Amino acid sequence: MNKEFYIMTEACPALNFFIYIQNIYGNQTKKSEHRFPYMIREYAFSQNFEGSYKEKWAETVQLVAENRFNGEKLFYNHKNFFFEGLFMDHTSFNEVYQSFKVWWQSLTGKLAVTRTVDEEISNIYCELAESSPRQTCLCRLYMMIAS
Known about the structure:
The protein has 7 helices and 2 strands; from the N terminus they run βαααααααβ.
């Protein structure tokens, strides 16, 4: 039996897009500390944004837990999932979606999310490897931008 221990970090575009949206909404509705991304213009969020957001977040977490590729499929192939219930108009949604997509696919997006936790992941790896029964083990951590 293979006695190696693996740890893998993945940055899920769907979950990170939710946090991106949440931060824009928070910047727009709360006049306290601003978070990335700070947008100057205001976007048309739905009246029931917070309720819809919680439902869609829970659904997405479940889908990603079932299959790690669901996060990419959802983000790239099912854009309307993010629009419905969260935004009032397609113009606002498309601008936010394209902004995130450009950032995510650049060196400052997905790579930045995964690289910011290198030291923490190394520490987690060491602790888990020491306490592991030394059987083959694969741990997967999904990385999200700070909310």
